[in-house]
Amino acid sequence: MTTSLEQALNTVSQLPPEQQAMLVEIIQNRLIESRRKEIAEDAKESIATFQQGKLRPQSAETVISQLQKALDENPMRSRKL
User: Fold this and answer.
1) Cα 77 to Cα 44: distance, rounded to the nearest angstrom
2) 36 to each of 48, 49, 71, how far by Cα in Å?
3) pLDDT value at 81 more than 60
4) Mean pLDDT over all residues of the chain?
5) How confident is the model at residue 49, as a pLDDT?
6) How far is the C-alpha of 13 from the C-alpha of 20, rounded, in Å?
7) Each residue of 31-67: pLDDT tens digit?
8) Could you count the other beta carbons within 10 Å of the beta carbon of residue 8?
9) Could you tell me which of 6, 62, 63, 76 has the fewest CB atoms within 10 Å of its CB?
10) Quick one: pLDDT at residue 74?
11) What is the CA 27 to chain-centroid distance, rounded?
């Protein structure tokens, strides 16, 4: 743990339980929003790449098959999905 993380945990532990719960909810919501923004940026980049002709259309079956193969080859990645 870094010093700043330890300081944050010490500060949080001094809050009443209700405020600690609120803080957990706020942090979870911020993480969710951050992930949504990351996904949106990835989607924009993918669309731009497709529109530039750098990707070719594929059937849903092909994409799902490739995704399943990638997940089978690297099971740790499937935990993030």
Assistant:
1) 22
2) 18, 20, 21
3) no
4) 90
5) 94
6) 8
7) 999 999 999 999 999 999 989 999 888 899 999 999 9
8) 13
9) 76
10) 79
11) 14
The half-sphere exposure of 28 on its side-chain side, counting CA atoms within 13 A, is: 6
Residue 54: φ, ψ to 5°: -85, -10
Q: What are phi and psi of 30, to 5 degrees?
A: -70, -40
Beta strands in 6-75 (DSSP E): none
Beta carbons of 41 and 49 less than 8 angstroms apart:
no
Q: Report the C-alpha gap between 70 and 46 in whole angstroms.
A: 18
Decide if pLDDT at 79 tops 60. no
Q: Give the model's pLDDT for residue 56.
A: 82
Instruction: Collect all residues with Cβ–Cβ distance below 8 Å to 12 and sequence separation of at least 6.
Output: 20, 23
The answer, as to whether pTM is greater than 0.70, is no
Question: CB-based contacts of 77: which residues, under 8 Å, 6+ apart?
Answer: 70, 71
Beta strands in the chain (DSSP E): none
